[in-house]
């Protein structure tokens, strides 16, 4: 049995292919429906996000299964194999396990540490369990993946730092105001960056927004999109009295809000905190206003500074996360090794059971007068003799599974009980047996 | 310090408070749930031992044992820990513990270091006015101590945001509005309690010394402290003071509380020392 992972992500695929990935991840149809096309595959798991696609499977016949899964993937993406082949990565066994752990812990993400990926993997796993395409090995692996990702998240600070400008601004707003949903946002100017920031704030359930712009047309357009109101540019300073968060991005050469403008208005707003996010270059807000009590001003360089700092921090945390993943991968390997003895154990049980059934049949046919109860008793008796007989050898084998010497004991057991004749069939029946 | 059982309990309480404080300081640096849970439990254990010790001593004396500086300080530390333990269940603001528990530990330590002078007991202590006087003032002081801790947290957080140096502490501390609000609520509840405490004190004084106001140092400082908090409350409610200035005034107010509460006992000899030596 081997575990294989095949996929591509934002690092390996060019933009043209990633655009296709983004389209595909919104589709409802799942390639797991077509698992029948891959007879060499035992268990299959499929993950798709807007910048990655991964197929994880177990198989007893590696090369053949790989070809079948590739075909499945090319078909699903609707792109020719020739175009995709060079962007694929293929990982086997421990490499595959490690890769999955890294993806789930968000070490392989475009924005390292972003939290969504774990949820996406969980959803993908739910899908796979509903379609019954995962069995013992992948069930175990995915559950382990969730716990590894959780461990990385709690034991490192990888997810704690904002690494985009708009996100950094939202985080700051939350450190100033706590809850944001009852706060009023003012967009001054209507640039793209301002829009992005506003979107992030709306995601925090901010509902009250006002757009102030020199051209009314653009203001109305933006206001319609965000369900905001508008205010004339001339009233900007008055509107400041009721705003809590101001995102400014006008093309103005001179500052539009100065210390002297703001000072009397802070008194009128009873000193409620006011947070300026100035993303315009040249700056819209006079830096002096940061000296006022309860006024907080961050310009684009300040925010970029936070992001850079957080990125450095994240890289350090990522190293600690890699360490956790390394040790968890080794622990999973130990479990996988116990699987090597499982076929032998199953063969042993199966042989014993076959003998029991045959002997039972013969004996019972010679004793036709026996009642139902007696027949039952004999069946139970033989069964428990077998179980007790086999208990110690099985425990012994399981115990040896982590050792280098296990091969020896597996061979020895097979010779001792003469299991070799049905060994080839038992390996592939492992999964169907336990599924 | 007390003898026998009571001494053992007090020592245990001091030890628990120190361990709990250490735990909370670790929690300040590393956000681990189990650290918080352990520190909370240890503080709780400390509070139980401490409460038992106070109960033992009070039972032996026949009245609430707050009649010497060490006793009063120890009682105050106990009140503070209890106030935090209860608040932390309601507020879900666990980081507060990192600031309140050191305060309680310091007070507790202080109480073991202060010279104990015992005062001949008398019927004076058994008046129900005294109980109201002591209970309200201790509650008010505990709230002001929490406000003090919140104010320090506010100033730290505000400084990191203003100066744009967002370190580890920044991410561990709660939002400015939240801290300011805690400060505000402690003041809103603490101030009336303090007022009631002072009024009962004056009223009781007038039954003992025939006059409510005797230019006693304790009285003067208490009135000053009350004025500081009155100004803070007024500025907050009427003018809309908040944030940094309010935080500084809360710190200033609590310093005045400490001076009134301890400094006067230790430095001046007034007639209040009939009660607290």
UniProtKB/TrEMBL annotation, chain A:
<comment type="pathway">
    <text>Porphyrin-containing compound metabolism; protoporphyrin-IX biosynthesis; 5-aminolevulinate from L-glutamyl-tRNA(Glu): step 1/2.</text>
</comment>
<feature type="domain" description="Quinate/shikimate 5-dehydrogenase/glutamyl-tRNA reductase">
    <location>
        <begin position="171"/>
        <end position="306"/>
    </location>
</feature>
<dbReference type="Pfam" id="PF00745">
    <property type="entry name" value="GlutR_dimer"/>
</dbReference>
<feature type="domain" description="Tetrapyrrole biosynthesis glutamyl-tRNA reductase dimerisation">
    <location>
        <begin position="320"/>
        <end position="419"/>
    </location>
</feature>
<dbReference type="InterPro" id="IPR036343">
    <property type="entry name" value="GluRdtase_N_sf"/>
</dbReference>
<dbReference type="InterPro" id="IPR018214">
    <property type="entry name" value="GluRdtase_CS"/>
</dbReference>
<comment type="function">
    <text>Catalyzes the NADPH-dependent reduction of glutamyl-tRNA(Glu) to glutamate 1-semialdehyde (GSA).</text>
</comment>
<dbReference type="InterPro" id="IPR036453">
    <property type="entry name" value="GluRdtase_dimer_dom_sf"/>
</dbReference>
<dbReference type="InterPro" id="IPR015896">
    <property type="entry name" value="4pyrrol_synth_GluRdtase_dimer"/>
</dbReference>
<keyword id="KW-0560">Oxidoreductase</keyword>
<feature type="binding site">
    <location>
        <begin position="49"/>
        <end position="52"/>
    </location>
    <ligand>
        <name>substrate</name>
    </ligand>
</feature>
<dbReference type="GO" id="GO:0019353">
    <property type="term" value="P:protoporphyrinogen IX biosynthetic process from glutamate"/>
</dbReference>
<keyword id="KW-0521">NADP</keyword>
<protein>
    <recommendedName>
        <fullName>Glutamyl-tRNA reductase</fullName>
        <ecNumber>1.2.1.70</ecNumber>
    </recommendedName>
</protein>
<feature type="binding site">
    <location>
        <position position="109"/>
    </location>
    <ligand>
        <name>substrate</name>
    </ligand>
</feature>
<dbReference type="InterPro" id="IPR006151">
    <property type="entry name" value="Shikm_DH/Glu-tRNA_Rdtase"/>
</dbReference>
<dbReference type="InterPro" id="IPR000343">
    <property type="entry name" value="4pyrrol_synth_GluRdtase"/>
</dbReference>
<dbReference type="GO" id="GO:0050661">
    <property type="term" value="F:NADP binding"/>
</dbReference>
<dbReference type="GO" id="GO:0008883">
    <property type="term" value="F:glutamyl-tRNA reductase activity"/>
</dbReference>
<dbReference type="InterPro" id="IPR036291">
    <property type="entry name" value="NAD(P)-bd_dom_sf"/>
</dbReference>
<feature type="active site" description="Nucleophile">
    <location>
        <position position="50"/>
    </location>
</feature>
<feature type="binding site">
    <location>
        <begin position="189"/>
        <end position="194"/>
    </location>
    <ligand>
        <name>NADP(+)</name>
    </ligand>
</feature>
From TrEMBL, chain B:
<feature type="transmembrane region" description="Helical">
    <location>
        <begin position="185"/>
        <end position="205"/>
    </location>
</feature>
<dbReference type="InterPro" id="IPR045062">
    <property type="entry name" value="Cyt_c_biogenesis_CcsA/CcmC"/>
</dbReference>
<keyword id="KW-1133">Transmembrane helix</keyword>
<dbReference type="GO" id="GO:0005886">
    <property type="term" value="C:plasma membrane"/>
</dbReference>
<feature type="transmembrane region" description="Helical">
    <location>
        <begin position="220"/>
        <end position="239"/>
    </location>
</feature>
<dbReference type="GO" id="GO:0017004">
    <property type="term" value="P:cytochrome complex assembly"/>
</dbReference>
<keyword id="KW-0812">Transmembrane</keyword>
<dbReference type="Pfam" id="PF01578">
    <property type="entry name" value="Cytochrom_C_asm"/>
</dbReference>
<feature type="transmembrane region" description="Helical">
    <location>
        <begin position="72"/>
        <end position="89"/>
    </location>
</feature>
<dbReference type="InterPro" id="IPR002541">
    <property type="entry name" value="Cyt_c_assembly"/>
</dbReference>
<feature type="transmembrane region" description="Helical">
    <location>
        <begin position="96"/>
        <end position="117"/>
    </location>
</feature>
<feature type="domain" description="Cytochrome c assembly protein">
    <location>
        <begin position="71"/>
        <end position="272"/>
    </location>
</feature>
<dbReference type="InterPro" id="IPR017562">
    <property type="entry name" value="Cyt_c_biogenesis_CcsA"/>
</dbReference>
<keyword id="KW-0472">Membrane</keyword>
<dbReference type="GO" id="GO:0020037">
    <property type="term" value="F:heme binding"/>
</dbReference>
<feature type="transmembrane region" description="Helical">
    <location>
        <begin position="246"/>
        <end position="268"/>
    </location>
</feature>
<feature type="transmembrane region" description="Helical">
    <location>
        <begin position="129"/>
        <end position="156"/>
    </location>
</feature>
<feature type="transmembrane region" description="Helical">
    <location>
        <begin position="6"/>
        <end position="27"/>
    </location>
</feature>
<protein>
    <submittedName>
        <fullName>Cytochrome c-type biogenesis protein CcsB</fullName>
    </submittedName>
</protein>
<feature type="transmembrane region" description="Helical">
    <location>
        <begin position="39"/>
        <end position="60"/>
    </location>
</feature>
<keyword id="KW-0201">Cytochrome c-type biogenesis</keyword>
């Amino acid at each position: 049995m081997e575990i294989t992972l095949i996929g591509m992500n934002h690092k390996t695929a060019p933009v043209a292919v990633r655009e296709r990935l983004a389209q595909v991840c919104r589709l409802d149809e799942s390639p797991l429906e077509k698992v029948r096309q891959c007879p060499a595959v035992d268990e299959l798991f499929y993950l798709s996000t807007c910048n990655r696609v991964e197929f994880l499977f177990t198989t007893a016949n590696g090369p053949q299964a790989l070809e079948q899964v590739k075909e499945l993937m090319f078909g699903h993406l609707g792109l020719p194999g020739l175009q995709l082949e060079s962007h694929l990565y293929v990982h086997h066994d421990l490499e595959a396990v490690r890769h999955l752990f890294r993806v789930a812990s968000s070490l392989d993400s475009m924005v390292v540490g972003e939290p969504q990926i774990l949820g996406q993997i969980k959803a993908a796993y739910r899908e796979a369990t509903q379609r019954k395409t995962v069995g013992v090995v992948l069930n175990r692996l995915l559950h382990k993946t969730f716990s590894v990702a959780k461990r990385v998240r709690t034991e490192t600070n990888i997810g704690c730092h904002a690494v985009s400008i708009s996100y950094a601004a939202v985080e700051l707003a939350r450190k100033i105001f706590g809850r944001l949903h009852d706060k009023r946002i003012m967009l001054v100017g209507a640039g793209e960056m301002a829009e992005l920031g506003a979107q992030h704030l709306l995601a925090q359930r901010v509902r009250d927004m006002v757009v102030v712009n020199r051209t009314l047309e653009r203001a109305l357009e933006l206001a319609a999109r965000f369900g905001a109101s508008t205010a004339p540019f001339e009233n900007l300073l008055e509107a400041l009295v009721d705003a809590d968060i101001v995102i400014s991005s006008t093309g103005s050469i001179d500052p539009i809000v100065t210390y002297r403008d703001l000072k009397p208005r802070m008194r009128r707003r009873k000193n409620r905190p006011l947070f300026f996010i100035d993303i315009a270059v040249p700056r819209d807000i006079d830096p002096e206003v940061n000296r006022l009590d309860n006024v907080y001003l961050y310009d684009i360089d300040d925010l970029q500074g936070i992001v850079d700092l957080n990125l450095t921090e994240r890289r350090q945390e990522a190293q600690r996360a890699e360490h956790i993943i390394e040790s968890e991968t080794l622990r999973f390997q130990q479990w996988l090794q116990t699987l090597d003895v499982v076929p032998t154990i199953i063969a042993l049980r199966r042989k014993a059971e076959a003998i029991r059934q045959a002997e039972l049949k013969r004996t019972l046919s010679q004793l036709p007068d026996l009642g139902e109860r007696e027949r039952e008793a004999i069946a139970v008796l033989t069964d428990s003799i077998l179980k007790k007989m086999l208990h110690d050898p099985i425990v012994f084998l399981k115990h040896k599974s982590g050792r280098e010497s296990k091969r020896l004991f597996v061979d020895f057991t097979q010779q001792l009980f003469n299991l070799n004749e049905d060994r080839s069939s038992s390996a592939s029946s492992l999964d169907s047996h336990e599924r | 310090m007390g003898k026998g059982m009571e001494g053992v309990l007090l020592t245990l309480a001091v030890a628990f408070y120190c361990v709990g404080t250490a735990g909370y300081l670790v929690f300040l640096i590393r956000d681990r749930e189990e650290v918080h849970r352990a520190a909370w439990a240890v503080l709780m254990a400390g509070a139980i031992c401490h409460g038992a010790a106070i109960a033992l001593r009070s039972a032996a004396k026949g009245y609430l044992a707050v009649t010497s500086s060490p006793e009063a300080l120890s009682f105050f530390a106990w009140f503070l820990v209890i106030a935090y333990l209860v608040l932390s269940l309601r507020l879900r603001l666990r980081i507060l513990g990192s600031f309140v528990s050191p305060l309680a530990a310091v007070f507790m330590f202080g109480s073991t270091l202060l010279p104990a002078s015992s005062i001949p007991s008398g019927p004076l202590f058994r008046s129900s006015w005294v109980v109201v006087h002591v209970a309200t003032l201790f509650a008010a002081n505990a709230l002001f101590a929490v406000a003090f801790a919140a104010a320090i947290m506010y100033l730290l957080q505000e400084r990191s945001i203003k100066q744009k140096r967002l370190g580890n502490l920044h991410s561990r501390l709660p939002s400015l509005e939240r801290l300011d609000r805690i400060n505000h609520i402690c003041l809103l509840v603490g101030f009336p309690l303090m007022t009631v405490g002072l009024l009962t004190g004056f009223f009781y004084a007038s039954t003992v010394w025939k006059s409510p106001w005797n230019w006693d140092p304790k009285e003067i400082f208490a009135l000053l402290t009350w004025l500081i908090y009155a100004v803070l409350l007024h500025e907050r409610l009427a003018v809309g003071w908040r944030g940094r200035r309010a935080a500084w005034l809360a710190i200033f107010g609590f310093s005045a509380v400490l001076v009134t509460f301890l400094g006067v006992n230790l430095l001046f000899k007034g007639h209040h020392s009939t009660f607290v030596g």
